[in-house]
Structures are given as C-alpha cells and as structure tokens.
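Margin note from the TA: students keep mixing up input and output lines. Inputs are the sequences; the output is the structure of the whole complex. Example:
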Amino acid sequence: MATPDFETYCQQLFDHKTASGKPEVLKGYRVLSCTQYILGPSCASYLAELGAEVIKIENPRRGEPMRHTTPFNEPLLFPLSRWVPEAGTGLGFFGANPNEEFITLDFHRPEARQAMLELAAKSDVMVQNFRPGTFDRWGIGYQHFKKVNPRLVYQWLGGFGGWGPGRVRASYDILGQAMGGAFGITGEAADRGGTPAKHTIWLADYWGGMMAAVTILAALYWRDNVSGEGSFIEYSQVHGVTRMLEYALPLYGRYGIRRERWGNWDTELCVHGIIQCGKSSYPGSANPQEAEVGYILVSAYTDEDFKKLCDVIGRKDLATTYAKHDDRVKAENQSIFYGALETWAKDKTKEDVATLLDKAGLNNQPVWNAKEVAEQPHWKMRGAVQWIDDPYFGDLHHQGPAFKMSDTPPRLKWALKPVGADNERVFGRLLGWNKSKLAKMEEAEVI
Amino acid sequence: MASSSFPNWKVLPWPAVPIPTPDEVYAGLTDQAKEYPLSLEAQLRQSENFKKPEYLTTVRVLDLTKGMIIGNWCSSMLSELGADTIKAEPPEGDPLRWQTPFGRKEYMFKDVETGEPIGLHFLHEMRNKQSITLNLESPEGRELLKKLAVHVDVLIENYPPGQFDAWGIGYRQLKEINPRLVYCWVGQKGQWGPSKDKPGNLGPTAEASCGFVHGTGLPKEFGGRPTRSAMWMADQVGGTSGAMGILAALLYRNKVSGKGQFIEATAAEAIIRILDYNWGWYGFDGSIRPRYGNWDLAINIYAVNPCKDGYFMVGGGHDRLWYRIWRTVGQTRPDLEDEILDDKSLRMVVARLPHFRQVKTYTILADWQKDHSRADAMHHLLAQQVASGGVNYIDEVAEDPHFKYRGHVDEIDDRLYGKVLYGTTPSLGDKCPGRLKWIGRPLGYDNNDVYLKLLGLGPGEVAALKKRGVV
C-alpha cells in the first residue's frame, strides 16, 4: 500500500468520527467534581473529555447555579431533573460539563459526609471550588480526604486563593479579568474613544480550568511514576490572569512603563491588525449581527508582505517611506497604515478584501461571527463544532474537544444530564446503596 | 542600562509599597479564624517552593517552535512544572526573540555575559528553558534532530503542515526512531482541512476565525467594534490545551501502551472549545451571539461600568446579592435604591436579563458609581460580601497587596538578566508547586551543555557544527 500523503494521513489519524473506536486516555481514573459556575466545572470537564469517570456532585433538586443562567433567559434544555420537569437547564451550563455523571448530595448533612469520604476513598482526583475552608468546616476537606486516600490529587480552584489579604473575597470570571490585568489592557485606547474591554468568553474561568487540569495531570504523572503520593493544589483565578500579561510586568518592573490599551492593532507587529470594511456581507439582513459592516484581520508585517500590501491598496508611496518594520511598528506611525487600509476597504465587504489579499498571497482573516464559524467547512470537517445525538436532549450543536490525539482522542459523548440523573448508578455501584437506602436518602433530601 | 533615547527618570525598586506581613494580614482575627488560612499558607507559601520536588523532573521536552507564542506557551506549561525543557531555535533565533513593543530596542533586556538583547514577551516565556540552535533547513541539522529525538519524551513543533514530514523528521519518521515520543504539533488552524494552508499566524488570527473577536467589545450602538484581546490570547489557550494533551499522553504511555502518540493543538479550536454557549445557542434557533461589551447576556448584575477613577466590576447573579448591592447603594443614594425596589418587573432574577432592563439596572448603578472611586466602591460592597473590584492597570497589578503577599507577581534576580518582574505560575501546591528557576537564556547559550550531554559530541564538534551553520 502506498504511503498516504501527509494531509490524508493526518485526516485519517485525527478524524473525530473514528474517535469512539479508540481507547480513552484517562480510562480508569475517577474524578469527583464538587464545582459550580465555570472555573471548577470546566476543569473537571476537560478530564471527562479525556475519558476520566467524572462524577459531578450538585445540590439536590435545583442543581448548581449555572444551570439557571442562559442568554437573555431564552434557550433552556428540559427537564432540569426528574423532580422538576417544568424547569430546564440554561445554556450557561453548556460546554462546561460534557461527558460527566451527575449525582446530588447535600454536603451539610452527616450522612452526606460519610458518602463523601467513601467516594473520596475510591477516587483519584477531587476538584472543588467552594469558598476556602468551607469543606474543611464540613469535615470533607483535604485534611479529611487524605486520611482515607493518601493518593488523592485534590484541586481547589477559586478567585483569590484561601490565604492572604484578599482570601475572603468572592470572584467571578469578569472580576478575575479586571483585577488580574487583562481587562485594563484590552480594548481601544481612550483617545480613540475606547474603554477597557472584557474578553467575551469567560476566559479566566475556562482557561483557568484548563490550567488546573494541566496541573492535575502533572500531579497524577508524579503520583503514578515517581512518588505514589497525592497532592493538594491551589489555583487562583486572578493569579492565572496575571500570568497572561506577556511583556507587561517585566516592562513595568524595570522601567516603570505601564502597558496600555492598543485596540485592534498589535504592539509588536505592524501591519497586523483588524480593520473595518465599509460594507456589510449581508446587506438588508434583519439580524443586526449580519447587517453590521465587516471586519478583517490583515497581516503583512514582513518587508516583503508590506510591499505587496501597498501595491494592492495602491499606496506604493508607503512602501518606500516605511520600508523598515522598526518604522512601521512605531506607535506614532501605525495609524497611517490602518487608516489607509480602512479608506481602501470603504467600498468593500470583508470577503472582497479577503479575495484581493488572497490573490496577492497575503495573510488575512475575516472576523467571523458564530454562524460563519459554525458553517465553515474547515471547522465542521475537523469536528471543532459538531451535531451530536445527545442521549437526553436529542440533536445538539456542540463544540468538540480543544485538541486532538492520534491514539487516544478526547471526545464528546454527551453534553450534560439532568440533576441527579446518575444517583442510582453511582451510589448503587460505588457505595452499594440499595433501592430502599436510595429512597430513604431521597426522602430525607440528602440526595 | 537605558539607552540615550530613554527619558531620564528614576524608577523605584519593586515593590514600591512594602509587602504586608502575616501579622498585618491576619490582624484582628481570633485564633480560631486564623487557623485555616495559616495552615493553608504553611503548605502553600511560595518561599518554600525550592524545598519541594517538581512534578515533571523526569520528563524532557524539546520545543522546536518559532514565530508563534503558542509553542513557547505550551512548553512553558511543562517547564514551570519541572520538565527539563530545551528550546531549539534556528541559528538566527526565534523571530519572537527580537520583537519588542513599538520597535523600541531600548525596552529590550541584555544578559550580563553576551550583552545580546532579548524581547520581553519572549523572555517572559523562556522560563526554565535552555536555548540551543539547530538549523533544520540543513540536512545535517535534520540528522542532528533525529539523534536528539531519541533522548526526549516530548517534541513540540509548529512548522507549516507537512513540512517536517517532507523533511523526513515528522511524526511518521520519528516514531520509528523513538516509539515512546509524544509528538505535538501546534498552530492556528491545523494540519489538515480545507483552510489548513490559509493559517494566518500569530495571536489575533485565530481569535478572529473562531467567533471570539466578533463577540468581544461594545455593541455598535454603544460606539464599539469587534475587539481582539490585548494578548495573543488564543495562542496562550491553545498552548495550554496542547500541554494537557501531552501530559495525558505521557500518563497513558507509562501506564498502558508504552508508546507515544501524535497530538495536534490549535489556537482557534481551543477558543471554539471554550466559547461557552455560542454553538449550542446557534444550533438551538440560529442565534448569532452579539457583542455585549462589559455586560453579560446571561447574568445581571455582572458587569464593569465606569466609576469616578476608572472602571469597576460588580457581580451578583442571585437575589440575595441583588438586594445587598442595592442596600449598599441606598446608603448614600436612597433615591436610586428606591427606584430599583419600586420596579416590580425587576423582582425575579431571570426577569432582569432582557436588554432594556439591563440598561435600566446599569444606568442606575453607574449613577452611584460615578461618585465613588474604585477603592471606595469596593470598600462599601465588600462590607456586604458582594464580589466587586476595580479594573486594575498594570502598576496596580504589580502592587496589589494580595498578589504581592501570595507571590502572584514576583521579582527574580536572574543570574543573566538581573532583576525581572514577572507573573508567576499559578499552580501552587503542598507537594510540587510550579516555580521559576531562571527567566531566560541568550540564543544558543546551552549548545555545549545539551549537545555534549545528550549526543556525546565534543566541544570541537559543536564548534565545527557552528562553523558549518548547523547549530
């Protein structure tokens, strides 16, 4: 058989449709997730995509608060639980809890404490994001768990961490972005009419969860290959955001220079920024998201590419005057190029601009909205977005895992389940509860 | 140190304000109240880091990426947790090494031994890594890579799709030489698929291609535009996701298969993964997520709005917090509290989400905020246990007492680069916390160490390779 060309080889190797026939990389690892909102849940969900058995433990009946958030209060997935069929789970919960099993437990109760200790004894990882010290007060903190399971990797995540001057402060993603520094440097500069801007995704949450997942995997690697011991790990969301500030801290530390907002351009490269095109790609659309004019990222920062770009937009003079990148990237000069580009693009859609730049062999990327992304053949083929037949909720359009593996691919099995959907399975199988015990616990609202 | 074009100002050493002591931090607390934070602190204090082992000391990583921060970031995730990480650069250096904001050479640092300048963005992600040079354009360099590949657990590269394969040093070929190798390709859009050859490069390209830019920034009606992250954020998230795959593959290799595998991590798909409900909502009824600026489509109150001296965040997604927020406002502006409490339509938490009600809520809240500084507003709201805080600028981040006390921001006195302020690794732990051992290395600084140690070359041979342009 002839060796396939590299692209075919990769496509066969990474095709998400064949993932279910391959082994799962974290099979055999059990994770307890006592998490709410996004930071903690997303951390556990990355492990669930990799095949770990993740047991998410929520409050009986209503579940965790994120189930009750959804954009403009519109889309909901029914039922919330078998006990509350008339309510649904909001899409705020979506994407942060795939592939998990869902049980309920009222942590305050002594019966729940016993169940928690038994579960901890049979698990590899515990993820929780309650306020610092709360679980310790309830007798289910790391100090208690490590006595029943010294191999447990215990990950606490939260806003500010459990010690230090700000330890009692609650946090959300947006506060993490704001306090950590990413918020203040994102967005247009004040003299261009801008304000600091929030990263629209719950970045500090979703990426923070990923950071914690990385640390958990490293801790498991150390446990299984080196020490045989578990560990306690603390992740603070504001701390994570501060890690992302690139050159800002070294620059400030040595020179006292404060990194400021630079909008849609780039401080290190020019031309490498997003420009406005004068025309909408969907004139007359009733959807304001489509009626709006288009935007496109134009990237031509090497001397050669910049010269080509100047040819395309009919400004050969700029290529002569600003032949060197060091001159182009200067703060005082950048607006010249982006201004010229926006003037040139005034009578064009983002697709018009992309076509002309493609023809010249120049890097560009139209700013795609959610619909355009969802309909890109590239993303569909790669399974970055996919339709799944969810066992509970039917046809759902869902994001795929963040990365691909050839032999043991991460995969999407289901989007979420109703509150307490796996009570019988998990309590029965792991703790040996029989039907009458389950009924008793349910009646007492322990589960 | 500063060049002549630099303003002649005096910079105070960091920290400008002393770091609080434990006595100050826990002043006024009962012994019982102190017990938990102090016991946690005893386990996690970063000054103890170097007394503890590291998770990944048994792992060796070879980072061959250049020109995109995604690769540097990916290997940083591993080097911060203790992996022996070698950054192999082309003989002229990773282009990122020479990049500096606004082209200002005077911002670059110089090491004490060679005096070679280094860009601060690159330096910040060179942490705990060694630098070697390796010319993959030359057949001899590629042979050298094959020899190196035997000695590493992880290889990370970001060359154009298929380039390494065509050179005979791709996954298909290297796995024959080292079946235990975990090979990770990182990039913007992937090695296969209809758009693979239109990858764009660096930072905001991926952000624009995944829906992030479209959704960030103020709506048009509020004078906003689609907005990119100030950081090359998609590369950071993509690099983190790659590290996740690498560690999972290492676990599986050692425990189950004995074999490495091929990993592909892209900046754009990492963001698509974390774009919460975008795709579910689109599939639900064709909704295209709009930009909503510094407010939130799914939670009210949950927003940043202007205040007296900048921008200020208030959050309270459920009823108890809602009333606490307005009680706080009512302390100085009872008229505003009344206006909210009198509006029956705002009583249910979900009823506050429609746009016109969010406008009303935040208009009234901003009316209170305009008379308060960030510190002042925070003081009042924290007294009611409401999550709140100002948008910090970089100097405030560097000097925040909480961050300094816990070492979120720290200064290293690096043997080569002197005092460098940096963001520390956020993985604190009782057993193996992440840490910074050194901040960076000049180009090819470790050629002798690495080639002599791993390949058994002699110093003369390395010099000869250098002469031939191989390293």
